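Quick illustration, no need to memorize.
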Amino acid sequence: MRRILVTSALPYANGSIHLGHLVEYIQTDIWVRFQKLQENQVYYVCADDTHGTPIMLKADDEGITPEDLIARMEVEHKEDFDNFLIEFDFYGSTNNLATREIANDIYGKLKNDAKLISQTPVEQFFDPKKRLFLPDRYVKGTCPKCKSDDQYGDSCEICGNTHVPTDLVNPYSVISGETPIRKTSNHYFFNLSDDRCTNFLKEWVSKPDRLQPEARNKVAEWFKDGFSDWDISRDAPYFGFEIPDAPGKYFYVWLDAPIGYFGTFKTLCDQRGIDFKSFVDAAKSKSSQTELIHFIGKDILYFHALFFPALLQFSGYRTPTQIFAHGFLTVNGKKMSKSRGTFITARNYLESDLNPEWLRYYYFSKLNSSMQDIDLNLDDFLSKVNGDLVGKFINIASRCAKFINKEFSNSIGPTKDHGILKEILNNKGAIAASYETREYSKAIRIIMSLADHVNQYIDKKKPWKLIKEDKDSLLVVCSTALESFRILSLYLKPVLPQTCQEIEKFLKIKPQLWKDVDCFFTSNHQISPYQHLMHRMTKKNMQKLTNQHANEKGTSPKSHGGESPADSNKINVMTEKFITIDEFTKIKLKVARIVKAEHVEGADKLIKLQLDVGQNKLKQVFAGIKSAYSTDELEGKFTIVVANLKPRKMRFGLSEGMVLAASNEKGDIFLISPEKGAKEGMEVK
């Protein structure tokens, strides 16, 4: 029995879970469920990544404490994961005592024992408007290496180069859009450039199973460039753990976030009485032969393959056994996009009446052990679910169970036609190996090929004819098909846990483990009356999914104000062709004064505005401008409103118009305002 601690990258606590995130968690959950089916001792833990300036800024914008914000997001994230059947042994938060204590312990050992912490004055970008030092991801500019525009301050998504924000060409603040100024502050560094770290990492990454070949090649490129010391501190104001011996200095989130793996696991260990040190202590983990497996996106490979292992090695903690990096998700061959309706959150998906197991199955059919991106092609998605999952797998039971139910009083008979069963059993090893090595697409090709063969077996035997000619043979054929269905359901159990649980109830068998593959039905085994196990996906589901973002947010890329999907389409059409002056004059634009602005509970982007449009008439409008404006700065401001837009009832209330705003490709929003002197009620012509 293996003893394995498994983690997925920690979702940041300032945004919703989307389908891109779910690639990782579904992939990990399938692997963990397979290990548990083999009766290995596996603990799968995760947590919200809760520290940093973005959390502080968002909480301040909402008028709540960071603690309130992360508590709310933890509930939302956990609900989303539960809905997609992600089965963590423990899900928590990095803002906990265990993570703080481990971070302090690692820092103390690196500083006092290993002498790998130093202090250096750092010239840093400072936002003159917001009056704070800018975190790396709140500065964008041109990559100093490949010259790609709109790259973050810590790394380039195009070439993978890591850098500091001050290396960027033409930098700007993501918060305010201002050109940041340079200020100097004393920072704490982990000396990754030290020869001890370099020599250790060369040996560590050279082990064959530590990283995928692509990942090892990428790391080799970083070795050529040499390592810089790693900045592990940030200045107040900052939401995080204060460094023990440095008042006003805080651990940078990238130090305590990966340490959060251990802090979260420590909480689980305390609850269940698990020997924590046997998994995380360098010496004890070797003697206990425990494993530590990280599933991550390829964009954070540098931190997990270099910075984190060195940090652990020189503070007495065990290093990862393996790191599995995966690619990104595209939708219909392109990056997820709000304007195309393909920026899809977990909740958008569920609100489109889509079965979460459909997505689990589709990702399973696309994923392999490489770092290649995978594409969610919506037409292919519908085809795979209906054609393979329902049409091949589920179809086996629906074709044969009715005969057992009706003709044989729910009683299974002998399975004399062992040819098809032997073929299914002979593939057990290949399927298990594909799960273990994360070659999921290979596993599904084998499983669906077997499902094809079972359906061909049914076609050949023609049970619909046997019912009139040879009921003994009918019993054998249908029993053999259901036996095959049972084994295939076990092969798919890590992917379709909920459906397979229903299959076990239908077949009246105990929850299956991997060793139960060849535990055949006994003669006269009773099954339940068949009830449909899975319905088909419809094009209506797909249409609802791609429109879901506009429905929920009440915005389009060009306008803000609670319009329906149909309204969005009209606006997009208007931008693509000429209109006549008569068409334009149908739109009544008026100057409006924002009398009151309020946050909308349960909406990430919306602000509720009360607008004075002249003659003391008030209109209520929901506008998707929360990311750009606080409620305080909006009140008293003049803007332009579409005054004759048909009122639309949203789940938050009635929206009676639309305020005009401009936006750029970065997603920044700029409310349209008239020149000084304009008064509420004036028409814009």
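The first strand starts at residue 3 and ends at 8.
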